[in-house]
Write the structure tokens for this entry.
Amino acid sequence: MTRHDSAIASTLPHELELRTADGFRLAATRYPAQGALRGRVVVAAATAVPRGFYRRFANYASERGFDCLTFDYRGIGGSRPASLKGFRMNLLDWGRQDMAAAVDAMADGKVPLFVVGHSYAGHGFGLMPNHHKVSGFQVFGTGAAWHGWMPLADRLKVRLFWHLLGPLTWLLGYCPGKRLMLGEDLPADAFRQWRRWAGMRHYFFDDPQLPEVHDAFAAVTTPIVAVNALDDAWSLPASRDALMRGYRNAPITRLDPDPKTFGRPIGHMGYFRQGAEPLWDDMLTWFASLATPEA
């Protein structure tokens, strides 16, 4: 391989493996920055969404000088065991362990580190023990997940979703999301915890068994931008605000893009699909401003 070939190879995406503090191995992909390095970015996924879904954004950011890492939570995508039946896990560990491991893998104390989150990541960031290593967190479509925050039609769909998938999950030993075209399969433990907390107005903040989450979220002082489109029925701004109240000591900017003025539908998944580049540009501009603060 020539020096030129080596230089090209060094900027190509490559697969790697992360190790969490509790010893779990996570599949990940790194997208090295092209050109001058402006910062590092960890992309934290939504529930049951594999890291490949964020490939377009990661390539886009790397082309603009950001070194990006995508990864799969335990039990999802490339981090799934051979069989989900009997696989035990805690949904909180996607934040406490998996997101934390991704942040540790990218943090060096020299280059500013940012986290881009989708849906669940808004829950997970407040659970991380190392959020202090992150200079800025922007999350899309996060919310408290309670059906009452949704429009009536979606509220009914979600309640049906919980009732139908509960017996299937018990029967199979995991939630068969792929068969039903609802994303990746979910470990049974993750599904049951998600369903339990989604029945509470303020998600796990209302769970009397989890008093520690209040202090964990209150410890976060990282600047946050929370973006919830007005057509994101799963996480409307009211749902977002119900969750964000937990980050009571963090500076929070709330953005509510209107699909009518944005020029296209956004919904819950459109934040990371083709056409969302204006959202990405605004975010990367904000990250760059945090990386080079005014004197």
Summary: The two ends are 44 Å apart (CA to CA). The longest helix spans residues 152-172. The chain has one domain: 3-291.
